[in-house]
## 1
Amino acid sequence: MEPIIKIEHLCKEFKLKEMDVHALNDVSLDIYKGDIYGIIGMSGAGKSTLVRCLNFLERPTSGNVVVDGRDLAQLSGKELREERKSIGMIFQHFNLLMQRSVVDNVCFPLEIAGMKRSEARKKAMEYLEIVGLTEKAKAYPVQLSGGQKQRVAIARVLASDPKILLCDEATSALDPQTTKSILQLLKEINRKFGITIVVITHEMAVVQEICSHVAIIDQGNLVEHGKVEDIFSAPQSREAKRLIYQGFEKVAEMKGKRCVRIVFAENSSFEPVIGNMVLTFKTPVNILYANTRDLDGVAKGEMILQLPEDAETGEKMIAYLKNAKLSVEEMEDYESVHRIGGAQGGREEGDEAC
Amino acid sequence: MLTAREVSMIIEGIGGTLWMVLMSVLFGYILGLPMGILLTVTGKDGIRPNAAVYKVFDVISNIFRSIPFLILLLLVQPLTRLILGKSYGATATIVPLTIAAAPYIARMVESSLKEVDHGVIEAAQSMGASNWTIIFKVLLTEARTSLIVNATIATNTILGYSAMAGACGGGGLGDIAVRYGYHRWQPDILLITVVLLVVLAQIFQMTGMFISRLVDRRRVE
Ligand SMILES: Nc1ncnc2c1ncn2[C@@H]1O[C@H](COP(=O)(O)OP(=O)(O)OP(=O)(O)O)[C@@H](O)[C@H]1O
Ligand SMILES: [Mg+2]
């Protein structure tokens, strides 16, 4: 099957007076129809630049973006505008027309497409119903909450019947509750209309909540990509680990000790495995952390075990756990990874580091 | 008290001033609005940046705005005569007023349109909107409140210029103020014309503000 979005050796440079900024270095990625693809990274990593290259709001310096078989760089201005109608985009700050009512905002793409006013209104109302805002049709954006504004933006984007929906930090300006409901709406849209969704975010929670796949961007480089489940169970890159370990910051005991992180499907019986292991080796292990996370609707359990000091027993235990079909990962670089994250004081202030 | 002749002269003066000002605003916008749009669109952060075009209109507007109005009035007299056959009276003053107003209006329009949130323009682009659609359905409509406020300011500036034109036989209330109030020293007429000019300015101001508020949907009712 051909990917619906094919990104090939994408590079983007911004030439500034003082210096050149390499926002993207040789990024290649395939996104398939029906995927919800998360793109995650720190602030300044190049996420927005990447997603803006997917509809050519930003022209790449080199490399190709092929959408549904069409190389965007080859299109004329008119053809590109036509193509953009099938690539919707929603934004962190909603970007609604403030002087138009809600229903007229949703009508806007239909007007661009040249639809008759009465027909456009009818269609707009249908989309407002999908996002649950029928009663706000006549209101103006200023009268809406953030979550409602994003719903209008989603209805507006749906009105042009897109194949692809790009979301640039669409939930970053919203509280956790509203974020959840918007993410649920996106998921529903993905299922109901088969729209491929690309989600830009700096929060692992967003990826866990709705994405089927994830790409991790660090300083303009694609460092890791694949199924969310795989990356969650066995992160390879330091950046991926840092994102996944974000939740463990409070586990202070972990410092300077040999720990492993194990991941299991929630229904798999991990307790007897650990119990049996302790019995087999006649050595206790310390459970430092245990949690279940919801990955795209599938519950995943994770646990951090502190292994005994004795290196040999530790090795054997890891082998034992692997043998029991659990995904096991040594956290020896937890500290260094953690230090990188910690030194920058969290993801928001990560800017300057790049 | 004023004689009947003087009263009818003042009423005529009001008519002359209104005619001059409103026609100049009209022609000023016919020239200045497209120029302001062009400045916005071709500017560095515009939707179709073009340094050369921007520079040309930038320079034109700066030159005309830096010429004092009274000098401009004299400079364009030959042009006025060419267009209207005479170079005095209210109608003739419309020509220099328009020429003074257009570049000023262009700048006002540019600053209003630049206030439009870039994200909204980008959203329109992401929907496949053409530049024309963006100009008419995003820039001009989203900036309408600011455009109207600025039109109000422009109208009152032109009102001020029109009174100045009175000094050179420009017609309207300014002309009466200069001829009766100054040359013949009739302070009552001077006072009345000044009061009338102030009242006109107030009326323009209030009307403009009223309309701008009427069309603004960004307020919570
Ligand atoms: N128009 C531009 N001109 C110059 N530099 C830019 C421009 N847009 C982005 N950059 C630079 O490119 C790099 C990547 O920026 P980008 O906005 O893609 O990051 P991001 O991952 O979306 O970050 P955030 O999470 O803060 O939105 C940054 O160093 C930024 O300064
Ligand atoms: Mg961004």
## 2
Amino acid sequence: MIEFDEQAKKLVVKLVYYGPALSGKTTNLLCLHDQLCNEGRGDLMVLDTVDDRTIFFDLLPLFYVAPSGFRIKLKVFTVPGQVRHDATRKAVLQRADGIVFVADSQKGKMGTNAESFANLENNLSMVGLDIDKLPLVIQFNKRDLPDIISEDEVNATWGPTGLPLVMASSLQGAGVLEAYRRIVALAFDALDARLELTARYGVERADFVSSVSRISG
Amino acid sequence: MSIDRKLEFIIGEDKNLTQLLEVSEALMVLDGAVRAGACGAEISDSNRVLLAACGGESPFSAMRAILVEGEPAGSVVVYAADSGARLEGIADMLHAALQTLINGAMKRMLTSEAHTTIVNQSYDELLETNEKLSGSERQYRELAASLETKVQERTEELKRAYAIMLQKEKLAAVGGLAAGMAHEINNPIGFVISNLNTLTKYATKLKEMLEFYHTNCEPAIPEDLARQAETRWRELKIGYIFTDLDGLVNQSLDGARRVQKLVADMKGFSHVGETGAVPTDINLELEQTLSVLCHEVRAGTVIECNLGSVPTVRLNPALLSQAFLQIIRNALQLKAPALKIVVTTGQQGDDARIQIADNGPGIPPDIRDHIFEPFFTTKDVGQGTGMGLSLAEQAVQACGGKISITCPPEGGTVFTVTVPIGSEHS
Ligand SMILES: Nc1nc2c(ncn2[C@@H]2O[C@H](COP(=O)(O)OP(=O)(O)OP(=O)(O)O)[C@@H](O)[C@H]2O)c(=O)[nH]1
Ligand SMILES: [Mg+2]
């Protein structure tokens, strides 16, 4: 949570797309930007890149006003996946309310996936966040590619963690909204438990989730 | 680590329109709208506070909402002489230009935010790393400094352990020797004592018989023979022999008995074949120790024993008597006129207490702390090894006891050994 201003009746929420380099975090955000209805959706900010590789972060902001007048700004970030940008990852991770971990489904990428996940765990503890309490969704991306590990294998490895698993192809648009909706809902639940968003500020979960994930057209 | 940093950036903090829109830039864009044909244009924030205005108002106007991250953050109003496509077109263009400005500013701010945060963070991490490094450097320095003392301490410990081991070996060797000797001496000394007793009886009988002849038979024999007998009696000093014989035999018996006791004490003192803790009579140990040491007692030295009642204590008697030996021997070697050593035992609380006091010169305060250190000696070269009191301390500690020294104002030194009565040490 970036900001909570009770008087101004405003909450600023942070979601972060994390994962190894080139797993498709930026592509996820591009896809969301394309799919989501532009009402309440801000412009996608793609900060400086080098050869299309994220060096700072990308940001897709969304804005929601509850019937009660309570306002929620939802900011969806990506981190740079390259190992050398660890300081940036940590900086972006601060005060996150939810994480989508974008894993690369390609065979031979399981090592880097695991490394990146370990890096996430480490950085979360460095910025004072508890991975066991933070909403977390695992997305296995690039399912459209031929040489990928099977869904059974993914389930076998990640199933025991109990974390929500989403199969996706951000390039083709599959599984992107699903992962996004799940993390939005989980983050809302976590914030509601802390701030009583529904009880005290009249923010309904269903309305919030559907509003910030309404698709265009 | 406390780093006082007032500037804190959280990436993605919400910004309002005034932060994102430079008035001078806004005015340039508004001016462009006026030049394109509008009468005037103005920008206000979400609270309808005017931020920038150009030209004047007119009855016809068009309004566009300014969005920051999808959130309404203010509005831009364009005034024109008439309504129509031209007004709407100018409004659209002005709005697009403003949004581009705002988005550009937003990107710039986000980038510098990220940059500042990362730089600060890296700086913090560097500071922390530096702190850690200097911490471990300090540790190494301290380690290096304390290493010498540590080595010294360990060396002392080793010396002590080695001395104790040597002493134990020596004890065992002496013990073995004592046991063998005791066996070899005990038998003959037994004969000697028993034969001396028999000899006394025989001598008495011979004396009696000779006496009988001397008094009863001599008057009845020829005078010449009697005179010869009288002369022989005197020549052979039979009268003197009669008076000396008893004393002589008794002295021999006494000496032999002393040898017998010494051998027994030596055997007892060395505790041959005994290992570990056994119920021990402390007074008996002291007596045996004193007996073993009797040949080291110089003429003129007085040893006074005030042995009180002490319950038996479970401990290794060989070690304890070793401690007594060392302390008493140390006292016996003192160069004091009319040396007097007082050995006192008794019970004090839960401890058995043994005090060995001498009337020697005392121990100067500055060396009192060193008295139990191995190889520490104030005696002339060759007199002492410097191991005695160190061994005594080790031995007492091995029995679970304590040893201390005090020098009373009236002079001399008092060694106090205490061992807990409930002690189960070996
Ligand atoms: N086939 C396929 N390619 C994908 C998919 N998602 C992303 N890609 C491609 O993978 C490459 C990297 O995608 P990005 O979204 O830039 O990856 P990123 O995770 O943002 O990478 P960093 O910014 O370096 O961390 C691009 O060429 C994408 O087109 C997918 O679902 N399928
Ligand atoms: Mg990227």
## 3
Amino acid sequence: MYNFEYSRAKSVADAAKAASGDAEAKLLAGGMTLIPTLKQRLAKPTALIDLNGIADLAGIKRDGNNLVIGAMTRHAEVARSKDVKAVIPALAHLAEMIGDPAVRNRGTIGGSIANHDPAADYPAGVLGLNATVITNKRQIKADDFFTGMFATALQDGEIITAVSFPKPDKAGYMKFKNPASRYAIVGVFVAKTGNDVRVAVTGAGAGVFRAKDLESALTKSFLPTAVEGIKIAADGLNSDIHASAEYRAHLITVMAKRAVVACG
Amino acid sequence: MPSVSLTVNGRKVSAEVEQRTLLVQLLREKLGLTGTHVGCDTSQCGACVVHVDGTSIKSCTILAVQCEGTNVLTIEGLAQGDKLHPMQEAFREHHGLQCGFCTPGMVMSAVDLLKNNPKPSEREIREWLEGNICRCTGYHNIVKAIQAASQAGR
Ligand SMILES: Cc1cc2nc3c(=O)[nH]c(=O)nc-3n(C[C@H](O)[C@H](O)[C@H](O)COP(=O)(O)OP(=O)(O)OC[C@H]3O[C@@H](n4cnc5c(N)ncnc54)[C@H](O)[C@@H]3O)c2cc1C
Ligand code: FES
Ligand code: FES
């Protein structure tokens, strides 16, 4: 690991100030992606700005029909939260399936979506639930937030403060795990709110995306059988030692069907 | 160089570290607590698991400077003098190890599991150990040891 400067921010304003003065600085949240990256010398930031001391970035609140989860809320906290289990149980289930207990004790929702790993779980929940990402500067709809592989709409130094999830009528998440890393080979999040059905897919492409064919089939009939005959095109999907593009395409339909079953 | 002050196994310690020094390096190299192991450089094996302020974390994936003011418990802090912690005793009794390299992390994870879930099912034990890799045992006796510790009221 190359060395860097380290500072502990006391507030979001404090962190924003430190970040705006140095384009090569990086925010440090749970460190579950950033520290392994530094250990491999794949990044060389001048400074790390630690968000762990900012108390008001962590925590889960109910705000009318929305669930607002602070950026520094750990995966373990979301997984066991009574509020999350009551309002969006599928989101608690998603958090419970991330990595392993020690990763869930540190990793945060803000870090996960800022990183936008193409195989990460939270991006599917955020896009599937039509959530809004709240930063220190603005609010960004999920449809505009994830822009490509490891890419988001965040500007340099912009800090996610929370994610606001509207309560769906029903939602379900299913992932086919990579047995070694536990990341998603394919993960599908399905949510139904009134007549609106959203299907978000992670693990299969360059980043999280919505599967429009599955959405229109489920809008007509919200049943597992409505999607089972749908063939997803393999063009442009990921192909690696874990799974071919064709296999991933097949898994999208299978996981979508199981996610609909999980909606109950 | 920054200095960091924290409590390790009940003892207050301070050390000079670099910003990039990991907690596990502080424990092993500065404090001589070599019970915490490093089994990988990808944050996947769990040999380095310790408790920071009561929760299990990977000490290879947190900076020492981030642990300022915290309370750290390592494998060396579990036994009371010569009396092993019941989880250590259960691992010995049920032969929950072969080479022993993964054992400190396994034991620290298992202690945290029973703190959160005193009577886990076999499946819950196996799922909890997703992040603790063992190359030797096939996990079977590790699971048995944790079940025994759970039945004995840890
Ligand atoms: C062994 C292992 C297994 C894992 N398995 C899974 C899995 O199955 N599924 C899964 O989804 N993930 C998995 N992860 C990743 C884990 O969920 C991470 O916690 C997550 O990807 C990053 O979150 P973090 O809080 O650790 O962020 P960090 O590593 O601290 O930061 C990641 C990036 O986000 C930026 N950032 C952090 N917070 C903010 C913010 N508030 N605003 C703006 N930018 C910010 C940082 O600057 C950095 O660039 C795994 C990780 C490990 C080590
Ligand atoms: S040394 Fe492997 S996870 Fe920490
Ligand atoms: S006993 Fe050898 S790695 Fe687990």
